[in-house]
Each structure stands twice: as structure tokens, then as C-alpha cells.
Amino acid sequence: MEHYPILERINSPADLRALPAGQLDALCGEIRSFLIHHVSRTGGHLASNLGTVELTLALHRVFDSPADSIVWDVGHQSYTHKIITGRRDRFDTLRQENGLSGFPKPSESPHDAFAVGHSSTSISVAYGISQANHLKNNPHHAIAVIGDGAFTGGMAYEALNNAGRSRNNLIIVLNHNDMSISRNVGAFARYLSTIRAQPAYLRFKGRVEKVLDHTPLVGGRIKEALLSSKSVLKYLLYHSTFFEELGFAFFGPVDGHNIEELELVFQRARELGRPAFVYVETVKGKGYEFAEKKPQAFHGVSRFDVETGNPDISVEDSYSMIFGRKLTELAAKDRSICAITAAMKMGTGLSLFASQFCSRFFDVGIAEQHAVTFAAGLASRGMLPVFAVYSTFLQRAYDQVLHDAALSGRHLVLAIDRAGLVGDDGETHQGIYDVGFLTTIPGMTIYAPSTAAELEALLEKAVYRTRGVAAIRYPRGGDPGLFVSPAPDADTIRLPGSPTLLAVSYGRIFQELSLAASRLETPPELLKLNRIWPLSEELLESLCHCPSILFFEEAVASGSISEHLLAALVRRGWRGRYQAVTLPDAFIPQGSANGLLERYHLRADAMEQRLREEMT
Amino acid sequence: MEHYPILERINSPADLRALPAGQLDALCGEIRSFLIHHVSRTGGHLASNLGTVELTLALHRVFDSPADSIVWDVGHQSYTHKIITGRRDRFDTLRQENGLSGFPKPSESPHDAFAVGHSSTSISVAYGISQANHLKNNPHHAIAVIGDGAFTGGMAYEALNNAGRSRNNLIIVLNHNDMSISRNVGAFARYLSTIRAQPAYLRFKGRVEKVLDHTPLVGGRIKEALLSSKSVLKYLLYHSTFFEELGFAFFGPVDGHNIEELELVFQRARELGRPAFVYVETVKGKGYEFAEKKPQAFHGVSRFDVETGNPDISVEDSYSMIFGRKLTELAAKDRSICAITAAMKMGTGLSLFASQFCSRFFDVGIAEQHAVTFAAGLASRGMLPVFAVYSTFLQRAYDQVLHDAALSGRHLVLAIDRAGLVGDDGETHQGIYDVGFLTTIPGMTIYAPSTAAELEALLEKAVYRTRGVAAIRYPRGGDPGLFVSPAPDADTIRLPGSPTLLAVSYGRIFQELSLAASRLETPPELLKLNRIWPLSEELLESLCHCPSILFFEEAVASGSISEHLLAALVRRGWRGRYQAVTLPDAFIPQGSANGLLERYHLRADAMEQRLREEMT
Q1: Residues B525, B502: contact at Cβ < 8 Å?
Q2: Per annotation, catalytic residue among A30, A108, A368, A456
Q3: What superfamily does domain B319-473 belong to in CATH?
Q4: pLDDT at A416
Q5: Do B125 and A152 touch (CB under 8 A)?
Q6: How far is B615 from chain A (nearest CA, A)?
Q7: What span, in angstroms and rounded, lies between the C-alpha atoms of B529 and B551?
Q8: Which residue from A134, A472, B380, B456 has the fewest beta carbons nearer than 10 Å?
Q9: Chosen CATH of B492-615 out of 3.20.20.70, 3.40.1190.20, 3.40.50.920, 3.30.70.240
Q10: pLDDT in tens, A522-556
Q11: What per-residue confidence (pLDDT) applies to A424?
């Protein structure tokens, strides 16, 4: 049993504020031990949370949550925040069914100012909260805590472009942990910091640069590094008073692991009476050797061994890996294939592709909108772009898929990972809407493999034998693959059985249906959709003879394939019996994927029972 | 009959290149006359096209379209481009059924590099094209022409953040026509231009500022104006070598009405072999007095009188105006009501609100994503935000409605203007997908008024008597309002008739249905949905007794209310006859709204015929 003598006395931000400053460093150590111990058992986001321990404590010591609203961008860095706002005792339930969410959730605690899970929203939210406070003469603050990764999302700029105009009590904290920034640029940033701390703040960069020209030894290298910086964000940070001219008071860079310094800066920002921008430098994975060395590997983790840092399950046989291997294989033979990811190279299985074909691999940052339209541009000039993206994040690019890809009839492939129930990440990440929103878009084709062989065959079909926008959707992780498909690239597979009932499904749960049917003495006829959209005339024609259809589907009911199929059959005058078992039209909270499938009657036992009822 | 002696000899970019430079000014004059003459008769975008005459000619004289790809952002400024690429003779068909599109359309001409209609996509597209060219060793250029308004959309930043990294033949032309920029800042920009034109380009702004400090009379005012600039874009432009450090060679500011200067700069940019950014200053409405004075009023216009500049129809009774008046009335009594627009204050009818309640009015720029999440932030602290947005542009914020508004259960109102077929703007602007994509989002409520009285009553209901995200959708323009609703805020209205058939509809086409039914000797029972989503248990229960249902709906079939209704009834064991007349799952080209409704059998005559068939 682990013991945390100081942490165990912290049950609210008030306890934290009452703590003598001398005990804060020890508390940080305890929190890091606590995080490593727990996340190694539950899985979750580790590196980002280890990097924000001091930042979180400083925020809660200076501000008065929940009267002051702390909005965590994405939210996967909010574990320390959860631990010190009364949720320490429940931390072993993290990301479990009915347990703590891995993201901020107002229903869980009033200290969680806003529900979040997707990136780049925090400035918009905090600006909205601060504006409401302003209109109601409420003097409290709204604080957005946003990482540099989230700044690659366009929404952050849209919000900045607006928020600075206000006179609100709004503070934007940039948590900068970009490992790629060189020491030199970091040195320049620290140098800038000393300038900015002066009372007679030097407004013009000209003088900064003049000083650099006269700085012996490092000056030239700093300038060189400065000039080679390549991202919008780096430019904004290291060049001049950008944020000030947008209306923000600028503070920083601040050492994100120095609580005293952080508190001082936050206190000053709080007193201003107008928007402030605080730039904080942190180290991702801080305090855990393996995570500091490989922060990407410890971004979102499954359970792992604390001593070695090794994960205790293999992800080699996940759908993502199979997809990545197959696409790399195709790209070796076809120089027109390009792979695109929005900051999810590892998660989508594209590491191999990236290392072998770097000129045709594009990581665009957390910028799904740009990713799709960029792909459409590539496609318009004869390339074969494949955008690998989680189902939940593709939601960001609905308009681009419709307006820039489908409307032009461009041929590109959306490889939709984490389709269906994703489990631990909960309601913000469920991939259960893509079938609904994609089928509203004219000309889409959607495939849904449920085995490795099908994923490979259908990917090839999506790339080479499909027009317009082709999507191929597959679940998170891996499956044992009970059903070995006899024709992995067929659009539909029909398995004989009693003609009194046709049971239909697609994707991973077809495996469950197959198992359920195999337990019956007289199994029903089965239909597996590999291409779930559009429904072919031929298929519809053949179904018009079925007296009774039962459809199992892992998607929300509204806009589901089962709804479209019913409408299409009725349009043809079909008058049989039709039943559909789908997910409800609801936000579905966290839990294991299998547990959730069971809850919604989409596993073999429930299916077997339902089949028996229908067959009698 | 108008006569254009030079223009009539220009049938391709080659003709334009062969024209002596001395005749270009006269040609520009002819093109402006041509534009004013034609747009006054067809309607369309005028001010932006008058501003880009010289820019377009210079681009086509320097670059070799279609081998070089010119991508117009949004695309409503491409009229001159269309006129000189062989479409002059068809220009009187602009925005008419089977006529020229008001936007670039590759199927219309190979010179239209990409189909477009929504904002802020051009850099992503042009970067994609240039990357494809690069990978194929094709030396041609991709050129994005983007206005400063489009730069308020986050996608533009996502793309910039990526495109500058490349070594592609990519040119971004910023067409800057912001009328709000003062003469001072403009003067500074011109001053900067002279510096940048020097062979020994002065890299550091420090020196610029030093020069300013020594510029007599205007130096101080220029610096002051510089420091008061408030938008991200103005900052990027007037401060330093931002674009250069992102990887672009920077040229400008260039006088956008001086063809010679434009050609020189484009020639230099073309020779570079790496991405270039060209900043061009233009005057919106250039050359037509009324449009120069009121560029906003001449942005997108209906037909107007050339002599007076007055439109020949009144928009006073449009749904937009009725919405704006009612919301202003509610806001006078309730200080929590806020109105938000994404750069469409006039189009959405919010001018009155803005003038009366400026502290609660927010124009966020072309930033629909931010708009929704900002609204959710406001709502989370007790405000009542109403975001007025065109249906087609709400597509940009699908994820934000789902993830930031609905998932949190925030109460806010989406006032969805231009819902349904929009007519002249064509396939990029049809508002026929929102029903499909919004109904995939759990917890949505959607209202669809079809008269002024209903719009007012249902808006009030959406604001005060609905939980979660409430949408109210209404068409473009106005309608005569045949059907005077007896209970404008009821969720459903059922009108008695023969029980053999129940005819269902909502929105403006219910007026058509009502008229059609009135012509029958024995009209069917009618059901009008005012609240189209969700379908109440009570309603579903009452429909289970109908032997036959016929649904008319102005939306694409997939994801339509008629699909959801069928599924819900079948789920309850209903086995009646069900027919739905909807729009096809397709992109629907331009034409008058009534003409299109007729084509898809959604006007009274076709409905009457269908009702008669079903009743016999």
C-alpha cells in the first residue's frame, strides 16, 4: 500500500492554499508517485500530467476554483487537478465504468469548469465564460490552459482573434512542452523573459536583436535558431509583442516547474483587469525517467510496468497496425499514395509509413479541417491520399469532407480508426456518429471490415476500386477474429440459414452475431455488410423477399445504416417485419468496449437470445 | 446593346497575354461596365469582383492557366476570371438554372482549378496541388487568392502552418480590402513596400521602427496606428517577416489596381522555386460609386438599378428580418440574451440587434467553430446565446455543436438561416444537410416554422421553453405565407381530413401541401411538424393508427425526418403504408428555389397529383 503523507491531507483547493510553501515540493513528489502508480494500473495519459503538476498547484493556490473557472484544453492533463479537488480516493476508478473520467466533467465536480476531450476549444470556452462574467459584473476569472500542440488547431486562432478585443478577466496559459525546440531557442526565450520582467518593458524587438548582435558566443546561434523556427506558434512566441497587440498582457516565459515563480506571475495576471497571456515552459513526463525520454510513448498509455516502463499488452495486432502495414505495402508499389495524419502518427499506425516514405507522409498537426482539404488538393492532381483519423476527430472535418472532397468528386480515402465504442476515453471520444454524419454526404462509400484479412482487402478496394470519397472504418485495438471471411473484399457476404429470418450486421460485432447464430439448432440466414454504404440496388432487390429482418448495429440509431436500409426497402414496397438493435441516440459514457456492447445487447449472448425469440 | 470592343476579343488567357499593355486599362474599364451591367440584372457578388479586375488580369498574364492552378478562396470574386476564360457570352446565365455558377466549378472550365464556395480553404487546396506537382516533378505553380476576411477562419492558419515548410511552387496572394484600415496604417504599409523592394532587403523590423522614429510628421502617427491594430491578420501583415520565417518569400504591399506593378511582383514570385506570399491592396467596389461607398451592401446583391444603386426588391419581409426583429424584442426584455454571427450581420438580420445591444452582439469573423464553442461558454454561465448562421456554414461546426454544446447539455439556440434549397448560390450553399447531421447529435431539438407568426413563436419557444441545444431553421428570403397557423407555437398541428391517408410535412413546403390538399374534394388528414425533432412519444403513438402516411420533405433522404419517423413507427410495430418524397442524396445545382422544388415534386401541383394517386 502506497503512502502519501502530505497529499492525503489535501481534499480541496482550500487545503492546498493552507499548505506552507515549504511543503509544496514534497507534495509534487508525492503527486508524481501517485500518478505513476495509478496510471500504470489503469492506463491513461501520463506524460502530460507529469508535466503539469506544479502548474496545477500554482493555479489552484492563486485562483479560487470553482468561482474562478479553470478550462483545461483537451483535458487529459487534468489528473492533478482531479486529485486535489476531492477525487483522490476514487482515482483507481479512472476511465473505468462508472469511475472517474479521464477528462474534465462538470457532472463529476464543480471544479471541472467545462466538459472537454477534443483539442483547441479552451480559449473559445474561457472567453465565453469571461464574457458572461463581464456582462454579469462578476469579477472572477476564466483561465484557459492550452498546450502548444492544441495551438496547431485553427479554432485557437479564431478565438484569439476575438478574445483579445475584450476587457474581460481572462487568462490564457500556454503550456509549452514542445520537445523539438532546441536549447538555443529556449535560451532566447529565457533571455526574453528577463527583458519582459523589467518595469520599463522594451517594446520593440529591434532592441532585442541589437542586444543579440552584441551578445558574445551565443548571440549569433540564438539568432540563427530564431530565424529557422518554422511554426506559426513559435513565431508568435519568440517574436515581439504579438499577444500584447491583440489585447493581452504578456507574461513569460515562466519555468513551469517552479511553483513560486508561477504563483507570482498568476497573481500579477489576476490583478490586471484585462486579458493576460502567460507562457509557461514545462517538461513532458517530468520526474519519470522513461516518460521524459519517450514522452510520445507515454502520452496515452495502457497499463505498464513501473520499473521498466514497458506496456503489459502488445498492440502489434491492432487494426491500426494492420492498416499501417498494408498501406505501407501499397505505397511501396504505388508512388501516388500519400498518408496524412492530424498529430496521430503512432495512434493511427502510420509510424512505419512515415519512416519509409517520408516525402509522402504528412503530419499536419491537430488540424483535421486542413487535412481533408489538403488531401482533396492532392487528389485533384492525381495523388492517392489516405487520411488516417479517429472517428471522433473526423467530426471536425464534416464540412470539408462534404464541400471540398465529395462535392468535387475527388477520390481520397478516409481511414477511420477508433470507429464504434472506444471504451475508456468515454463520451467525448466515442466513434458512433460517423456512420450518421457521413451518410448525409452524397457520393460517400463506406467499408467496415471485421477481420485483419478484410481490413487489408477492403483498404485496397477503397484505394483502387472505389470512386469519390471512400471511408474504411475499424475499431480501436484488436479482436480475436472469430469469423474468418471467405471473401474478404466482397461488398456483402450472405451465409445460408433458415429463410424465416435474416440477421444483418457489420464490423466487429458481426463476429458476435456469427457466434450467436452458431449456437442455434436452426440458425437464421446471415448477411454481413462489408460495404455498408451505399446499399446496392442488387442487395436491396435480394432483400425484398425476406419476411423478417433483424439488424444489429454499433452506431447511434439516428442516421444508422439500419434506418437507411429500412427506408430503402419500404421505398421498394417491402412490407416485412423489421427490427433493429442499435446504440441509443445518446452520449455513451466510459467503460470497456465489451462491457458497453453487452449493455446495449450487442454481444453474442444477448444476440443469441434475441435470435431465439425471433425464430419462434 | 452594350458594346465592349477590347473585351470582345478576349476569349482565353492567351488572347489576354497577346494584348498590348497599353490597352489594359481600357479593358479594365470595359470589364467593370460589363460586371455592373450583368450583375444588376442577374444579381450576384459585385463589390468583390469590381475590386479584383486588375489582380485577375495580372495573374492570367503572368501564369499559364490551367497548367498553373489559380484557386480562388470562397470564389465569389472569380467573375473576371470567368469572363476572360471563354465564358463571357454565357455571363447572362450567371446563377440561373443550367447557367454559369457564381463560384469556380471545374466541370464548367478547366481554368477553374477547384470547386469552392465556403471560406478559408484555398491555402489547403493550393498546398495540396503544389505538393502533388512537386511529387510529380511538375514545375507549374499553384496560386491561392485569399481575402482578409477569409483569414479569420482557423483553417487558413492550419494550412499556413504546414505550407511554408515545403519547397513547393506555391504562391499565396492576399487580397486585402479591409475598409476599416486607416490611411495611416495604409501609409505605413506602402512605406514598408519601398523597403522590401530594395535588393538588400532589411530583415529586421528594428531598423524599420528606427526609421519611423525619424520620419517627420507622420512617423509617430504611423507607429501609433500600428500599435493599436487588433486582429491577428493585421499583426501578421504589418509586423515583420512573419511569412518569411514560416518559409514564404514576402512581396508587398502591392497596389492591386496597378497591373504593371502586379505583373512585376508575380513574375518575381514565379521565379523563386519556393513558396511566396504576395500582399495586394485593393478597393472593394472599385469603379462603381455606390459599391465603393457601401461595399457591404454590394457584397452579394439581388438585381438592382444601375443608375441609383437601389435594389429592385425589398428584403424587409424575409425570414432573416423577422428573426432579427423578434430577437431584438426579446433582448430588450432579457439581458441574458446574446446574439452571435460569423461575419453575416446583415445576411442573418442582426443589424438592428447590433445597433441596439452592442455589448451583447458578437461578430466573430468567419469562425463558425469558435462561434459555437464561445456560445457554449456563455451558456455555461447563465447567458442565453443565439448563434445566427446559414445552414451551409453550420456544417463547419458539427463537432462543436456535438462536443462543446450538446454533450455538456448547454442551452443555446442555433438560428439556422438559408435552410433548405437556397437557389442561385448552387450546390456549395444548399441548406439541405443540417437535418441529417443535427439529428445524429443526441439531445438536439429542431423547430421549422413556415410563417412569420410561427418563426416568432417558435423562436421564443426555442429560447425559453427548450432544453439543451435548440435549433430553429427557416429558408432564405420570404414567402407569401399561404397558411396562417392557428397555433404557431404548437409542436405539431393536425388538420382533419380523410383518415385513409395522413400527409406530413414541415417548413415552407407545408404551405404547398396545404394548397394541394385544399384542391381535393376529399382532402387527406394533414400533419404539420413545427418541432421536427425529436419526435414525441405522444405523436408516434397517435400515428400508429394511420393506415397510410405520405411525407413531403425538403432535405436529402439520408438522415431525413421521414427516415427517422419510419424507423420509429416500425420500432413500435406499425405496419402501414409509408411513402416519402424528399430531395435525392445528391448535390443539387443552382436554380430558383421554386424551380428546384418543382423539379423534386415538392410544389403544390405535383403534391396534388401525388395525393390524388394515394387517395384512390
Answers
A1: yes
A2: A368
A3: Thiamin diphosphate (ThDP)-binding fold, Pyr/PP domains (3.40.50.970)
A4: 98
A5: no
A6: 17
A7: 11
A8: A134
A9: 3.40.50.920
A10: 999 999 999 999 999 999 999 999 999 999 999 99
A11: 86
A326 belongs to the catalytic site: no
Q: How far apart are CA B569 and CA A566, in angstroms?
A: 11
Cell of B547: 393506415
Segments of chain B with pLDDT less than 70: 1, 178-242, 245, 311-316, 479-486
Catalytic residue, from B87, B396, B473, B531: name it. Answer: B396
Alpha helices, H only, B19-73:
24-42, 47-50, 53-62
B360 is catalytic: no
- Tell me the pLDDT tens digit for each residue of A36-84: 999 998 888 998 999 999 999 999 999 999 999 999 999 999 999 999 9
Q: Do B158 and A365 touch (CB under 8 A)?
A: yes
For testing the chain A interface, which of B244, B394, B437 should be mutated: the one with the most A CBs within 10 Å? B437
Q: How far apart are CA B261 and CA B258, in angstroms?
A: 6
Asked if the model's pLDDT at residue A232 lies above 80, the reply is no
Identify the CATH assignment for A7-301 out of 1.10.155.10, 3.40.50.970, 3.40.50.300, 1.25.40.10: 3.40.50.970
| Least Cα separation, residue B130 to chain A (angstroms) | 8
Domain map (residue ranges) of chain A: 7-301, 319-473, 492-615
Closest CA to A189 of A279, A286, A249, A275: A279
Asked if the domains A7-301 and A319-473 are classified in one and the same CATH topology, the answer is yes
Residue of A nearest to B159 (CA): A370
> Closest to A227 (Cβ–Cβ): which among B245, B335, B360?
B245
> CA angle B510-B516-B522, nearest 5°?
120
pTM given for the model: 0.89
- Per-residue burial over B550-569, b if 16 or more Cβ lie within 10 Å, else e, is bbbbbbbbbbbbbbbbbbbb
Chain B residues near residue A569 by CB distance under 8 angstroms: none
What pLDDT is recorded for position A19? 97
B97: annotated active-site residue: no
Neighbours of A20 (CB within 10 A): 6
Candidate from B128, B398, B578 with C-beta closest to A395: B398
> Per DSSP, what are the bridge partners of residue A548?
A577
Residue A485 confidence (pLDDT): 66
Per cent of chain A over pLDDT 70 is: 87
The predicted complex's ipTM stands at 0.89
Distance CA A440, CA A398 (A): 10
Cell digits of residue A463: 484505394
| A383–B135 CB contact, under 8 Å | yes
In terms of Cβ atoms closer than 10 Å to its own Cβ (0-12, 13-18, 19+), residue A203 is: middle
For residue A571, the chain B residues in CB contact (below 8 A) are: 580
Average pLDDT over residues A403-407: 96
Q: Residue B484 to residues B214, B454, B508, B510: CA-CA distances in angstroms? A: 71, 9, 12, 11
